[in-house]
Amino acid sequence: MKSQVMEERIRRVNVLFHEMDYRLVEDERSHESYSATFENGEGFQAGLLIDRGSRFLEVAYTFSFSPVFSGYLRDKLEEMLKICYEFGCYTSLQKTKSEVSFSVFIKEYYSGLTYYSLRDNLRDFRRCVATLTDLLEIDRKEREGKEEKTN
Tell me, what's the pLDDT at 15? Predict the structure, then answer.
């Protein structure tokens, strides 16, 4: 892909995010890709990626956990996948020695990239992230129960 096409994709995505009242807070460019973190006035943050060899914009949000929570995540995984399916989001699960990360993302093809399509996909994406956040939050009673057992 010519760098002119890549630059036009970056410009187009930045304009659309600005029109939807998202602010780009960090960005990074290379010859092959462009990535940025964006946020809105409510404090929601996620990342976007434009890759030279790809035909779509990718928007992602990652939940990271200590490996101590592996069992907890394993118990919640089926429900997490159902939530992502319900909102039309893709997922990625990675485990290293230092962390377990669960990413949820959407893909928006450039050929169909309009204000309305991106707005609707971001709305569903944000709902998915909010629902996952509610599911993955460790209940206060659970924490209090564990504290009582240790005392």
Answer: 96
